[in-house]
Amino acid sequence: MLFKTDSETKDDREIRRRIHHEADVVIVGAGIVGCSLAVALGKQGRSVLLLERSLKEPDRIVGELLQPGGVAALDKLGLKDCLNDIDSIRVKGYDVIYYGKEVQIPYPEDAGAPGTKRPEGRSFHHGRFIRRLREAATRTPNVTVVETTATELIKSGYTGQILGVECTTKGGKDFYFGNLTFVADGYASKFRKAYIRAPPIVRSKFWGLELKDADLPLPNHGHVILGEGAPVLLYQIGTHETRALVDIPDDCPTASVKAGGVKSHLRNVVVPSLPTCVQSSFLEAIENGALRSMPNSWLPPQTNKTPGLVLLGDAMNMRHPLTGGGMTVAFNDVVLLSNLLSPENVPELNDSKLVLKQLSAFHWQRKDLTSVINILAQALYALFAADDANLKALQLGCFRYFQFGGNCVDGPVGLLGGIIRNPFVLFYHFFAVALLSIWLRLSQSKIWKMPLTLVGSAAIFWKACVVIFPYIFSEIRA
User: Fold this and answer.
1) Which residue range(s) make up the domain with 391?
2) DSSP class of residue 436?
3) Count of CB atoms within 10 A of residue 193's CB?
4) Which one of 161, 206, 341, 352 is CB 3.0 to 4.6 Å from 308, fit for a cystine?
5) What are 149-164's pLDDT values in tens digits?
């Protein structure tokens, strides 16, 4: 390797990282992806520099629910103990409440081993989980964590290869070099624009509140509240804390300044749609708690094609956080990528041609899981935030579908939880919902209105196609 000799010891490599700022790998961002990737590569014997702007415990309102598929990936990385000692909550599934009617959606049993314990997710304070991941990275041999602000990527003027990162440390310029530079600096990535053509699409925000000692209808479950407005999520993140996330579209008239702003929307539109047992703690949080927002972004994945550079995490691929799939995608990406770039598969990380070949394989191999989560998140949000008659028909069909139970529940929640990794299963269930929606419309129609109802049924099916196919096409592009 470029920065390693046969006689070099671990101490020599540590000195090289700390004094000369040279390593096999430079990772920008010590978040979900950065920390877990540093641990995975460090365990393989790679020399790793992990750079983070601030090592203070972060405070965010998303990244607080890890689906069972993410828990399994965390276990594969040897990091499952990071879920301990942070007051995390076991999550057994979902409770969907549609205009006051409930349907419980537990995570499914392992299809290959009926009768086994159902998988569980975890929810927690995001910052506490990140702190534990950073502690794990710091303890990992071959990994050096540095508090510094990445400002520019260092690019070879001759080959175009990324050689490392220019940083600012305590007001002074700094430079860190590696055979491979991973950028995992989150949804607001400062480096994305130069290497990914399409910008993220944002049509709404999640506004977050922290409820104290809320009385949830179904403990140890995430709650999805569907009513006249966009969806509301409720899930416990600690013994005494519950996160409320309210989706508000950018052009929502009831949240405009003229109508009284976001707090007025929460009081007048959201509170009446909530279960009675939650309303008092929700109102108290509006009055006394900090109201914060995060953009709900959509960014289709693209193949990394720049030699020496890999964009990962939200810097490379985002979906609506409604389904809580972001961290599941992240940890599974790290499992797959660390295998593809292992010393057995890529002996020298400065072999750009081989690395790019493995990155192309990564782009396509990740799709058995990530395409499911990406498409499901966007399609389900379109239905749950229904703003026209056809979408509302599909929303009703979706709820009625869940009420059938059995595979009508196990299939969708298995996809959502990262347990079922088959895009064709998603396609099947989505159009089963569409056909059920059409049947509900036809069965409620009077005979003399049937011609008009048939036209409306065709419109429902067309709307279903309009909802899902753009996201399918975005996944099959390179």
Assistant:
1) 386-476
2) H
3) 9
4) 161
5) 999 999 999 899 999 9
